[in-house]
Write a structure and sequence with these properties.
By secondary structure, the chain is an all-alpha fold. The chain has one domain (about 15-105). Helix content is about 75%, strand content about 0%. Helix 1 crosses helix 2 and helix 2 (about 40-70) packs antiparallel against helix 3.
Length: about 100
Amino acid sequence: MINGYSYLVGCEDGQEAHLMAMAEQVEQRIDNIQALGNQSGEARLLVLAALLMADELHDLQLDLAKSKRGPTPKVEASRVDAALAKTLGRLADRAEEIAVTLERT
């Protein structure tokens, strides 16, 4: 179930819990978008959720690439934590920007 709709998606045996966890991640993004208000349409919500997740993935990939070049795992772990906190802040800011843009349309 995503946004109150049931989707039939196949997966390999034993991967059901993983698939459900991924659906929950999508659902959380949709809930965050809806909390900002003024979003309409299933397709629009799913696109916004996908864009937020793609933005997160992009930032995490950049952070991972940077961490592979870092000095030591212990020092780098704290940098990755800080980078993740910064990424979450950027995601929140971006979600607010999207909400403002949607209010204007």
